[in-house]
Amino acid sequence: MAVEQHRTSLGKSELQDVLREMLLIRRFEEKVEERFRAGDLPGFLHVAIGQEACAVGVCRALEDGDVIASTHRAHGHTLAKGTHPNELMAELYGKQEGCSHGYGGSMHLYDVERGNLGANAVVGGGLPQITGAALAFKLRGEPRVALSFFGDGATNIGTFHEALNLAQLWQVPAVFVLEDNKWAESTPESQHSPIRDLSERAKAFGMKALKADGQDVEVVYRTARKALDHARGGEGPVFVHLETIRFSGHYIGDPQVYRDRDEARELRETRDPIELLRAKLEVSDEDFAALDAEVTEIVEGSVEFAKNGTDPAPEDALKNVYA
Ligand SMILES: Cc1ncc(C[n+]2csc(CCOP(=O)(O)OP(=O)(O)O)c2C)c(N)n1
Ligand SMILES: [Mg+2]
Predict the structure, then answer these.
(1) Is 188 inside a domain boundary?
(2) Is residue 158 part of a domain?
(3) No. of H helices and E strands in the chain?
């Protein structure tokens, strides 16, 4: 299969755009927290504050036609894969204008037209889906890659092992992106995994594994690019291990009694992916404030859009129920 050569790094203007995208996701999720606490949003919501570089760095490395599957912590992936903030916020408000037409909510965000096969409330749910999509691409001879995001906790789930085993056996164009934030709900990794380096799990299937700092968006992009080129070139699936940090609780409202507050504060002060890129690009306070105002306006607009949306009709409640 002929593979186009892609650039492996981002230029300055692209990095400025990346900064804007990460800031938009951060402000969007802060607004989600605020609206949830105010009682506007139904359900059980998880934000990925601190993990923005994973979503943005990986999704920026994708090509048109590539597909992703996401997790219960899906807002960043969804925005980074191209869903408009209005459609995402409308979904969180349960409106017909939402990306899942109000049927899904935070843990069931779909946008198939933009290559997003969906978020998954079931931990590990996206992994076999991605192996299947990648198998279809291989059988059809299409130069597309299927990519799954999942957390460290998900590596303990049966579907993780089944999906990686078959992907490697069939040599399908799949990329498995582990967002290793070292927590599964309130359980630290040392108490849910017998091994310290989760890349070893991929190596057990004979799969190529790459490891990267998930707080450095440039490094994430480069690593994802490498993995995607490898998979697209017919050389088999790749496991990408991103070490990242969940600044927030497991869910909105989590009192985090299980976590050392000083350590969490220190991580936030020193390992914020947005601040790290901002420093690298030497963005002035004035320019950053302007960028912030621009994305905040988009987020505020999404709330207005969502509030003015259409409630689903009660008679349509069972419309998409098949079993
Ligand atoms: C099959 C299944 N088991 C358990 C749960 C409950 N649950 C929801 S999130 C979560 C932790 C997942 O941890 P991880 O995969 O590391 O993702 P993170 O929350 O850190 O992003 C668990 C156990 C679930 N939703 N699905
Ligand atoms: Mg985790």
Answers:
(1) yes
(2) yes
(3) 12, 7
Per residue in 238-258, pLDDT (tens digit) is 999 999 999 999 999 999 999
**What residues does 69 pair with on adjacent strands?**
148
Q: What residue ranges line ligand 1, CB within 6 angstroms? A: 71-73, 121-123, 150-154, 181, 183-185, 246, 250
Nearest ligand by distance to the CA of 186: 1
230 located within any domain: yes
Range of the domain at 97: 32-304
Beta pairing partners, 150: 178
* Predicted structure pTM score: 0.97
pLDDT at 2: 39
CB 224 within 8 A of CB 159: no
Q: Residue 182 sits in a domain of what CATH number?
A: 3.40.50.970
Report the interhelical angle of 12-37 vs 217-232 (nearest 10°).
100
User: How many domains does one find in the chain?
Assistant: 1
DSSP letter at 310 equals P
> How far is the centre of ligand 1, averaged over its atoms, from the C-alpha of 228 (Å)?
26
